[in-house]
Amino acid sequence: MQFSKFLILVLCLPVLCFSQYQADEWKERDSWMPLKRLFEVADIKSGIQIADIGCHEGYLTVHLAKRVGQKGQVYAVDVRKDRLEVLKNNLKERNLSNVTVILGDYDDPKLPDGQLDVVIIMDTYHEMTDYKIMLERVYKALKPGGKLIIFEKLKKRVKNGTRDEQTEAHTIASKYVKKELEAANFTITKELYDLGDWTNDPEKPMWLVVGEKAGDTKMKSSKF
Q1: Measured between alpha carbons, how far is 42 from 118 in angstroms, rounded to an integer?
Q2: What pLDDT is attached to residue 15?
Q3: Which of 52, 99, 142, 217 could link 213 by a cystine bridge, Cβ 3.0 to 4.6 Å?
Q4: Which residue positions in the chain have pLDDT lower than 50?
Q5: 20-212: CATH, from 2.60.40.1120, 3.40.50.720, 1.20.1250.20, 3.40.50.150
Q6: What would the 3-class secondary structure string for the chain be?
Q7: pLDDT in tens, 179-188
Q8: Cα-atom radius of gyration of the chain, to the nearest Å?
Q9: What are the extents of the domains in the chain?
């Protein structure tokens, strides 16, 4: 009986230790992830300050750190400490020192106020049950004219589902996100729906929406 329990534990360890975005899979991910278009849309260039919320083990963070250079700064945020420890190792291996790693809360990315040019939330917004508060925090962290990029995949099987039905399936449609951004005082400036498919799966087309913070530093009352 004890041996059976031990055998089950050993067999389960690979699953428990599995990481969704392992570094040895990043090269393959580069083949389908539209990074070039994402960087162009977000105007990501040398010297800017940018946040990657839901950074996991650092796939996007590493690309951003290389893009903004030593004069720029990347804030890598996640709510899981284990992921951030892996991220730190990935940064060290690549000799990248322009990244601030932040253990955030589910309703607070703990970003500095009014300093960021761009915030990217990639394949993570659908997990945010406290999205209203999160959007307010992000708005506060952006400079006037700063951009928030929501990048997601929409699983076709729940394309016409309610917001709850979609988020339970770990996905979300842009129609919900746009309303939520506008309610949080963002202006929708761009939408893209021809970004290819997540992991080259035609049932998971990718999309992004850009919300911009008003040039006026005073935030209007939330519409939520």
Answers
A1: 7
A2: 36
A3: 142
A4: 1-19, 217, 219
A5: 3.40.50.150
A6: CHHHHHHHHHHHHHHHHCCCCCHHHHHHHHCCCCHHHHHHHHCCCCCCEEEEECCCCCHHHHHHHHHHCCCCEEEEEECCHHHHHHHHHHHHHCCCCCEEEEECECCECCCCCCCEEEEEEECCHHHCCCHHHHHHHHHHHEEEEEEEEEEEECCHHHCCCCHHHHHHCCCCCHHHHHHHHHHCCCEEEEEECCCCEHHHCCCCEEEEEEEECCCCCCCCCCCC
A7: 999 999 999 9
A8: 18
A9: 20-212
Beta bridge partners of 188: 211
Per-residue pLDDT of 100-120, as tens digits, reads 999 999 999 999 999 999 999
Q: Which pTM was predicted?
A: 0.87
